[in-house]
Amino acid sequence: xxxxxxxxxxxIVVMLLAGLLxxxxxxxxxxxxxxFDIDAQSQLGQVMDQALNRxxxxxxxxxxxxxxxxxxxxxxNELLATAATxxxxxxxxxxxxxxxxERDIVDKLTARLxxxxxxxxxxxxxxxxxxxxxxx
Length: 136
Known about the structure:
The protein is mainly alpha-helical.
């Protein structure tokens, strides 16, 4: 009978399997990292979206409070400035993580302002409070 020493072949097979497992593990780890990064970006986007909406709502409420005697308050740069100041103060880290500048915030607010439910077709802030009841 012949004795065959397979130890060199076994060593090579073990090293190849170890390398293959390392590559598969690295790929899986990268896939998980991408998934969590996408989730984190999505969550940051949601935070930014909420801040933009709240900023506009705050600016509209403030405009209505300042124009109590008028049914409508014209939209001005002050309305955008109020909303932008709110957003920039509320989510500075989110802005930094998303790479969003103050100018980007103003642009996003301007676009959303046109579609805000409190803005009517004449581009004014409509007073949605009920009309006071008349006496007599």
